[in-house]
Amino acid sequence: MFDTKPYEDKMAQALDHFQDELKKVRTGRAHAGMLDGVMVEVYGARMPLNQVANVTAPEAQMLLVTPFDPSNITAIAAAIRDNQSLGFNPSDDGRVVRVPVPALTEERRKQLVKQVSEKSEEARIAMRTIRQDALKDAKRMKDTKELGEDDFKRVEKEVDSLMSDIQKRIEELFKTKEKDVLTI
User: Fold this and answer.
1) Any idea where the Ribosome recycling factor domain is (predicted)?
2) What is the pTM of this model?
3) What pLDDT, on the 0 to 100 scale, is given for residue 147?
4) Which helix (H) or strand (E) holds 158?
5) How far apart, in whole angstroms, are the C-alpha atoms of residue 116 and residue 181?
6) What is the end-to-end Cα distance of the chain in Å, rounded?
7) Which of 8, 16, 95, 174 is the S-S candidate for 120 at Cβ 3.0 to 4.6 Å?
8) Minimal CA–CA distance to 42: which of 14, 5, 74?
9) Which residues of the chain form CATH 1.10.132.20?
10) Are 60 and 29 contacting, i.e. CB atoms less than 8 angstroms apart?
11) Exposed, middle or buried, 42 (CB in 10 Å: 0-12/13-18/19+)?
């Protein structure tokens, strides 16, 4: 009997990865997840920002980073400033780091939509690869007579059904994020 569960899990992981990638795309409004990829050099090691500070978004155009240890404040501000993909210019007052989030220009919004589109295409490619692996394994089992013709067709339908459900979900997420980015 062919088990589609491992492939369902792989598809779910790929969908989760896609959702995480979408969170990294800026929409013009500040949210704490924008600084998730920032690594800070503290105590002689590189650590994720969320392990050395608390990140909040008190208003739509501002992030507030409160370090757990105030002696790390300059390292945190430098790490945020040095991350070129973010394009932020933080300022610190000795206790907290304020990160103003600039409003997006129309051109930048279009670039972000293109970036989101590329990420959704990468997710679709990952899904197709997982589908091909599942069908290849099912075909191999059919060729070695571990799986009958009817069972193979059932597996094929099951995988295709799962695939179309996840493709719809990817499209919904893309449309939602596109609307989010283009909303001023």
Assistant:
1) 18-182
2) 0.68
3) 84
4) helix 149-182
5) 9
6) 53
7) 174
8) 74
9) 5-23+105-182
10) yes
11) buried
Q: Burial code of 138-149, b = ≥16 C-beta within 10 A, e = fewer?
A: beebbeeeebee
User: What whole-number distance in Å separates Cα of residue 144 and Cα of residue 139?
Assistant: 9
Task: State both tokens at 90.
Answer: 């933080």
**pLDDT tens, residue order, the chain (184 aa):** 678 888 899 999 999 999 888 877 766 677 888 888 889 999 889 999 989 999 998 988 899 999 999 999 999 999 988 887 777 889 988 899 999 987 778 887 888 888 889 999 999 999 999 999 999 998 998 898 888 888 889 989 999 999 999 999 999 999 998 888 887 6
From the options 3.90.226.10, 3.40.50.2300, 2.40.37.10, 1.10.132.20, give the CATH code of 5-23+105-182: 1.10.132.20
Residue 79: both structure tokens together: 């790490």
Count the residues in the chain.
184
Nearest to 76 by CA among 55, 59, 58: 55
- What is the rounded distance in angstroms from the CA atom of residue 157 to the CA atom of residue 124? 18
